[in-house]
Specification:
This protein is α+β, with helices and mostly antiparallel strands. The protein contains six helices and seven strands. The chain folds into two domains: 94 residues, no CATH class; 102 residues, PH-domain like. The longest helix is centred in the N-terminal third of the chain and has 25 residues.
């Protein structure tokens, strides 16, 4: 959820430092390292925070029981009652991690993540998402509009999100042009920030496609 904004911030910081030191090569190398490091340590980092999870769904609630990978000791157990959930959001990473955010009626939220399946498979077959979606659909059948659990699209699918992305793109283009005019030798380094912002358009498109598909999605039969 916060990884992409952090990555953008660090990228802009690297560009600024490279410009401040008048060392464009430093900026380029630092940005490449910044981009590669998460992939090199991704498996080890994820394992440190990964637990064996058992999900138990029923018409009233669903339970998430977390166990230690080594000794299978119960570490945490959370129960989420359907009538306490106001909305949810879901997205899938390229590494087949399913992220589900629950927006509770008391104003709080809860982020859950599961190593499961890619988006296409998760929607069509039995998965954490398809089970979750099936029970939500069943829960909503006899509920009025105010009491239904609704899907809440990601920020970048909204008009405000689009306005923010376009604004960042315009600012980036202006800064790149200025950079090319006054410091042409190091100007190529400034393109890194542009590529990051363009990536937000890709995320917006993917989120919109998922939202549209969800609008007409039939639950998987179990």
């Amino acid at each position: 959820m916060y990884a992409f904004p952090i990555y953008i911030s660090l990228t802009l910081l690297v560009i600024y430092i490279g410009k401040l030191l008048m060392m464009p090569k430093f900026g380029v190398v630092a940005w490449i390292i910044l981009t590669i490091i998460p992939f090199l340590f991704q498996k080890k980092f994820k394992r440190s925070f990964t637990r064996k999870t058992i999900l138990d769904f029923n018409p009233d609630a669903f339970k998430v029981a977390e166990y230690d990978l080594q000794n299978e000791e119960l570490k945490n157990e959370s129960i989420y009652e359907w009538d306490k959930i106001k909305a949810y959001n879901c997205y899938f990473s390229a590494s087949s991690v399913t992220f589900i955010t629950l927006y509770l009626r008391d104003g709080s939220s809860k982020n859950l993540s599961f190593n499961d399946k890619d988006q296409k498979t998760a929607i069509m077959e039995e998965s954490v998402f398809s089970l979750f979606y099936s029970f939500i659909t069943e829960y909503n059948l006899n509920k009025d509009t105010d009491n239904k659990i609704v899907f809440r699209p990601g920020f970048f699918t909204t008009k405000a999100g689009l306005t923010l992305i376009v604004s960042l793109l315009i600012v980036a283009i202006i800064l790149i042009i200025i950079h090319f005019i006054f410091h042409p030798k190091s100007a190529m380094m400034s393109l890194a920030g542009l590529f990051v912002i363009l990536g937000l358009f890709g995320k917006r498109k993917k989120d919109i496609m998922f939202k549209d598909r969800l609008a007409n999605l039939e639950p998987v039969k179990f």
